[in-house]
Amino acid sequence: MKTVAVGTNNEAKIAAVRAVLSEKEYRIVSLEVPSGVSAQPLSDEETRLGAIGRAKRALEAAEADIGIGLEGGVTKIDGQWWLCNWGALADRNGVVVAAAGARLALPPDVGTGIEAGRELGDVMEAYTGRRNVRRKEGAVGVLTNGRVDRSAMFSHIVELLAGQYEWLCQNGSFHV
Ligand SMILES: O=P(O)(O)OP(=O)(O)OP(=O)(O)OC[C@H]1O[C@@H](n2cnc3c(O)ncnc32)[C@H](O)[C@@H]1O
């Protein structure tokens, strides 16, 4: 049985991996690892790098067969802040795949908090009056009126990673 290490202790991210990868096939462990980027990634590029950093560090730290990193960030498009989400999967042969998930426009008040240097999780707590948004529904859950929570959003990314990885294992690999 292969061991999959998820580089976080955030329940919403761990639940996303558990929803996609069967525990009959994989032993899933989680551990907090540094992303190697800032606590609040401020671009798609930085968020993607954070996901890759977490995947590689989780792989190494847990001596796993596969490492998965999931990273939330924000990115500015045409002067407006958007939520962005990335994931990466790394294996012991040096294969790395990455995928992006949902992007959503953030309300102007939330963008103002980001501009002031605050982390999105803290801004969302103040904005909603709810606690632990980052570990529960996420900004995506709040802004989609509960239709797509953070775990469901990340599970789509994990499906993209697992599917790409399977395809590459069958058809030859390339690196991101
Ligand atoms: O425990 P880890 O895995 O670090 O999870 P995190 O939610 O704290 O950290 P991320 O690196 O995924 O996100 C970077 C920052 O952006 C915030 N963030 C990202 N996506 C979010 C979302 O959908 N809802 C609330 N906060 C979010 C998060 O709280 C962090 O402050």
Describe the structure.
One of its GO terms (biological process) is nucleotide metabolic process. By secondary structure, this protein is an alpha/beta fold. The protein has a single domain (2-171), classed as Maf protein, CATH 3.90.950.10. It contains 6 helices and 6 strands, in the order βαβαββββαααα. It has helices at 11-20, 44-61, 108-115, 120-128, 138-143, 150-171, and strands at 2-6, 26-30, 66-77, 80-91, 96-100, 104-105. Strands 1, 2, 3, 4, 5 and 6 form a 6-stranded mixed beta sheet that branches. α3 packs across α4. The model has no long low-confidence stretch (mean pLDDT 96). Bound molecules: inosine 5'-triphosphate.
Q: What labels would you give this structure?
A:
alpha/beta, YjjX_NTPase, Maf protein, binds inosine 5'-triphosphate, 176 residues
Shape: globular
Q: What is the rounded Rg? A: 16 Å
Strand content: 15-25%
Number of domains: 1
Provide the structure class: alpha/beta
CATH architecture: Alpha-Beta Complex
Q: List low-confidence stretches.
A: none
First CA to last CA: what distance?
26 Å
Q: Classify the helix fraction into a percent range.
A: 40-55%
Mean pLDDT: 96
What CATH first level would be assigned? Answer: Alpha Beta
H/E series: EHEHEEEEHHHH
> Tell me about the biggest sheet?
6 strands, mixed
In total, the number of strands is: 6
Q: What ligand molecules are bound, each kind once?
A: inosine 5'-triphosphate
CATH topology type: Maf protein
Count, helices? 6
